[in-house]
Amino acid sequence: KKGQVANLVERFNDGVSEVVNQMRFTSAAELKAMLDNYLTTCKQLIPPRWLNHLPPIQALKKWQAEKPDFFVKRVDSQPGLDN
Question: Any residues with CB less than 8 A from the CB of 54 and at least 6 apart, and which?
């Protein structure tokens, strides 16, 4: 499992690096906005194969419905998540 996580982190970092290297930023705020947008896109819009092609928030909601005892907080009540 550690190897899988390391591979996921490396692929994510490679993606960030590729996007950052293709753009020119006029300020740190512009870079931060782009990184925030990239992270939101990765977390909510791109359904990874290892989550059975569900966006991460949808996978969490599914897991919570199947195993509610594993969760301290309700997934759907967290700020910043999809509707």
Answer: 47, 62
DSSP string of 38-56? Answer: HHHIIIII---GGGTT--H
pLDDT tens digit sequence for 13-45: 888 898 889 989 999 999 999 999 888 887 766
The DSSP result for 8-77, as a single string, is: HHHHHHHHHHHHHHH---SSHHHHHHHHHHHHHIIIII---GGGTT--HHHHHHHHHHH-GGG-SS-GGG
Length of the chain: 83
pTM of the model: 0.51
